[in-house]
Amino acid sequence: MIDEETFVDEVEAMERTLYRVSRSLLKSPEDCADAVQEALTRAWAWRGRVEAAYFRPWLTRIVINECHTIGRKRRRVVLVDEVEQPAPAFEPPDDRLRQALSAVPEKLKVPLLLHYLEGFSVAEVAQILRIPQGTVKSRLHHARKRLCAEWGAMKE
Amino acid sequence: MKAWENGLLERLDNAFEPTPDRFHRRFDSMLAALQAQPAPKPRRLRMRTAVVVTLIVMLLCVTAFALERLGVLYFLTERVAGGMSTEQAEAGVVPVAWQQCESERLSVTVRDIYMDGERLAVCAHIEPREPDAYRLLSETDIGTDGEHFDRIWWQGKVLSFDEWLPEGKEMLVVSNAVLQIGDRRLPVSVDWVAQDQGETFSFEARLDVFGEAPFKENDGMMEAALLIQSHLYGGENEQSTVTFAFPFRNEQGRKELP
Q1: What angle do helix axes A95-103 and A133-155 make, rounded to 10 degrees?
Q2: Which residues contact A85 (CB under 8 A, 6 or more apart)?
Q3: In this complex, is the C-beta atom of B42 within 8 Å of any C-beta atom belonging to chain A?
Q4: Which one of B3, B27, B31 has the shortest CB-CB distance to A147?
């Protein structure tokens, strides 16, 4: 169970995490904002049912679900690749790394980001993605290899 | 080449642009809007749910009551689940559907009812409500040895009161009984089962005095009451009433009527 004050504090601390997680799944920053907004609304309504210790993985899971929902809606309307996305206001500091990361499949990329970038433990990643811990470890291994390969390819 | 050897994993954040201001503003306004929302009201039991639950409970209660009154529960628990044997049923023994005892001193439990066209016999277990204060016997147990009217015939022996009655107890005597069916009262003979002399009594009434239509049926059940007189030896009579019901079929009661 989590009170309003703790909820706000935790969410504020997770702003960057929520942006990056949603950004890794959606191409448009506007869609990211929509997904996070919807996730926060749901999380607020159900905040009484989650323990403080599980709040971060729990909220991350909701954001991922919302991203998938929005992604499905977008695909139903028009293929994302067919639309030229508006350029973000700021470019990433390392565009080559962004391209390498974009080339990594989602099922490998998400565990990689959650573990190495957002600092979730293997157990928490397993909880967020609802997969066994062994699968998380395996995906992390393959994700590192794939990122390395893509990075090398970019370099050439 | 390994990803972490290049420091790729430490630099993953560089793959993302800074959080856009637009996102940040929406994020902040969203949090502010959530905080401004009124606290959710505690869940109330919906009226419809309450009505449905109440109806289900009432239905269960009515069904249980009806089954009990009709003797179905007794039939299931006693007859089907190993109670009365088929031989007993064929011999005219009928189960007791329900019973209720009203008495200050006695506890009366109807155990078996035997009925044919001519007679209705009720076997009842009777014991004092306070077994430490009283010892029970039938009036017919009290007799004389030829000189004194203070002897008790007990399991083939003739005992004096002092020999029979434990110290500190009083004699509680079952003296007489009447069977009441509807408005009619029938005299009954009082006897006891030999093995449990003085405790398990048999009351037997002749039904032919009723004539052509002896019973009032109520949904296949017949209700009767046994009015038992008892007294502390030398004292005044007190009446105990045990009301009971049992399944009844017309042909069972009338087939052998004259």
Answers
A1: 130
A2: A27, A28
A3: no
A4: B3
**Record: contact B17-A113, CB cut-off 8 A:** no
> CA A87 to CA B77: how far, in whole Å?
80
Using DSSP, state whether B136 is helix, strand or coil.
Answer: strand
Largest CA distance in chain A: 52
pLDDT by residue for chain B (258 residues), tens digit each? 565 556 788 888 888 888 888 899 999 999 999 888 776 665 666 788 889 999 999 999 999 888 877 777 766 666 555 555 556 555 677 878 888 888 888 888 888 888 776 788 888 888 888 888 888 888 777 877 667 677 887 777 788 888 888 888 888 888 888 988 888 888 888 877 655 555 788 888 887 766 655 555 556 678 889 999 998 888 888 899 999 888 765 544 444 433
Most B CBs within 10 A among A11, A147, A151, hence the mutation to make, goes to A147
What CA–CA distance (Å, rounded) separates B75 from B208? 28
- pTM of the full structure: 0.48
Query: CA A141, CA A102: separation in Å to the nearest integer?
Result: 17
